[in-house]
Design brief:
Blueprint lengths: L1 H11 L2 H11 L4 H20 L5 H21 L3 H29 L4 H26 L5 H25 L22 H32 L4 H25 L5 H20 L4 H15 L2 H11 L4 H9 L1 H19 L2 H4 L1 H13 L5 H6 L1
Helix pairs in contact: 1-5, 1-6, 2-3, 2-8, 2-9, 3-5, 3-13, 3-14, 4-5, 4-7, 5-13, 6-9, 6-12, 8-9, 8-11, 8-12, 8-13, 8-14, 8-16, 9-11, 10-11, 10-12, 10-16
């Protein structure tokens, strides 16, 4: 599960550090660059909503789709074919992220938020490595070869998982899509279902807007080289990674809802400050602060969701809809940036998303309040 989430983190953060390179090679405007993010996260949404009750099988499908999709992206001659490859790769990411988080959420019932935070440390570590490896390797190796190597890691994961599944006597770690561990019927009410889906849509857009556009933003407004701008994105993911370790400890003593609200409030402030930053040092500083403030949100929110005892299908759909936000908001940022000529103006979108999330956190349906 840790290896799968690390690959998912690498794939999720893949575009941000290499986007300026692709924009130059394929002569894309910001609005076209946003289409690449949209293709990947539309695929992730489809992957999440089609996860089967046999979760290890879905994990295997995800690894296979990741290999095919990112391998195709590596060979793509232009934006159109690249979008197709990213869609397939994104489908694999959606299968991996959803199946692993549901498995973990069902397995760990005590201190669920803390456990999920530690598991998602691997996701953040993969995302951090994406920025770090881009800064280290792109000056020395061709992008195509690096992407082909990345696709090969999914093949390795699939081979290892097949070997493990053959050695397993039964699917003890898998759950039916409509019944719980004990066999009694359960699931989310309509209001709670929509509440968590709304949270994940907005958060998926917020995090992807920041991680996807930060390298380009730092390159334009920080007056630095591409490598230094990639390190700025690395700082964001490093702080997210460290923040999730810290959040794991904090959520053993403080409720998930309290941690969630504090993080969202700080994220709104730091996003507004980032939009007004005009130096590489300030951009880097706010990237770190944003990573720390966003770190607790996903594990805290998913822990609250799992406390509501959703079916596997419901949990999968709630996770998957974050891909819709991750597809739509970064694309809209690209459109706004192209039309206004300013990525700083376009940062209004993630700021509004952070404020909306903070407001929603105070409008929790009754059963979710009790769970918190």
């Amino acid at each position: 599960m840790h290896f799968g989430l690390m690959l998912a983190g690498l794939g999720t953060a893949l575009l941000g550090p290499i986007l300026p390179v692709l924009a130059r090679q394929w002569e894309m405007q910001d609005s076209q660059s946003g289409l690449l993010m949209m293709a990947k996260f539309c695929g992730a949404f489809l992957g999440g909503v089609t996860v089967s009750g046999k979760l290890r099988r879905s994990l295997l499908v995800g690894l296979g789709a990741g290999a095919v999709g990112f391998g195709g992206f590596a060979l793509a001659p232009g934006m159109s074919v690249g979008c197709v490859g990213l869609f397939v790769g994104g489908f694999g990411l959606g299968q991996i992220i959803t199946s692993v988080n549901i498995l973990a959420g069902r397995r760990f019932t005590a201190h669920r938020g803390s456990a999920l935070s530690m598991l998602n440390f691997s996701f953040s570590m993969g995302a951090m490595l994406s920025a770090l490896l881009a800064a280290w390797l792109l000056p020395r190796f061709a992008l195509r070869g690096l992407l082909e190597s990345f696709a090969g890691l999914f093949v390795v994961g699939a081979v290892v998982l097949v070997a493990q599944m053959r050695g397993a006597s039964s699917d003890v770690e898998e759950f039916d899509a409509t019944t719980p561990e004990g066999g009694s019927q359960f699931g989310l009410s309509g209001r709670v279902y929509l509440f968590f889906a709304g949270l994940l849509v907005l958060y998926g857009g917020l995090e992807t807007c920041l991680s996807g556009w930060l390298t380009t933003f730092a390159l334009r407004y920080g007056d630095k080289t591409l490598a230094v701008s990639e390190y700025t994105t690395l700082l964001l993911w490093m702080s997210l990674t460290v923040g999730r370790v810290g959040a794991s400890a904090v959520m053993r003593r403080v409720g998930e809802k309290t941690v969630q609200r504090w993080g969202l409030g700080l994220a709104a402030v730091f996003t507004a400050a980032l939009a007004m930053a005009h130096s590489a040092v300030m951009i880097a500083a706010f990237a770190v602060l944003l990573g720390l403030s966003l770190a607790p949100f996903f594990p805290a929110t998913f822990a609250l969701l799992m406390a509501e005892r959703p079916t596997a299908r419901q949990a999968g759909i709630v996770l998957a809809v974050s891909g819709l936000g991750a597809a739509a908001l970064p694309w809209m940022m690209g459109v706004v940036s192209t039309r206004t000529g300013s990525l700083q103006v376009a940062l209004a979108l993630p700021f509004v998303a952070a404020v909306a999330l903070l407001g929603m956190s105070w409008l929790v349906p009754r059963t979710a309040v009790d769970a918190a």
